[in-house]
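User: Can you predict the 3D structure of Lrp/AsnC family transcriptional regulator? Sequence below.
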Amino acid sequence: MDEMDSSILVNIIKNPRQTLTELGSKLELSEQVIYYRLKNMKFKSIIEKYFLRINYEKLGMKSVYLAFENDAPYPEPVNAKIMCLEKITVYGLSGKEEELNDRIENLCSYLGKPFMRYEAPVSGKKFELSALDKEILDELSKDPLASAVNIADRLERKSSTVKRRIDYMLENGIISIIPKINLRMVNIVLIAIFSSTIEEFSSIIDSRLLIAYSPGSGFAITITDSLESAKKLIDNIRKKDKNAEVMVVYDYDFYP
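Assistant: Sure. Here are the predicted structure tokens for Lrp/AsnC family transcriptional regulator:
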């Protein structure tokens, strides 16, 4: 895997639904080159699949991220599972308060006490999903890269309406599309961070997969394009927050 593939992957992680034209313009590459390289990465299972992630905080629900020094598999449904080289697993859970508390209790009774916990702040502006939005999300959960035209055909709606709703949900952070990258086969490195002062170094992290800030503390996953740049980033983070938990991610899954 070369530098060009790494650049394509980093940009795909940031925005998987961008067109080849948009991606080519950013990277100064032809659409044909990008198409061929993406096809090759899918064939080699470097890009395994895509996830739809719903940001439940935007819908007035709560989300909690819990880090366990335990890599045993947990059999119950979760919204995120982030596995780190340090034998640490971060779980993300979302839902209404009573349901969420029950899920947290079940998780902790199975895996033990978490050594880090972060509760994402509920968005000040609560977004309401329409019946059409929910139908669109159901389609995107089956195929996160499905075009507005194809979704509109299945729902018997106007493609312009479907595109407008998808764009609205993406632009307002209600949803995001996340590629599943086989990190064992690539140069890029994902770093997971728990910090009590995360806002102090927000300018040096380029978080796209998962990020949740609060006044002072937070949890983030950031992308780096090599081990060398990952080490520099980790050093910079620890200079600003010596108590930060910084972990190298080797696998991850997200669920709607």
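The radius of gyration is 19 Å. The chain has three domains: 3-44, 48-127+172-256, 131-171.
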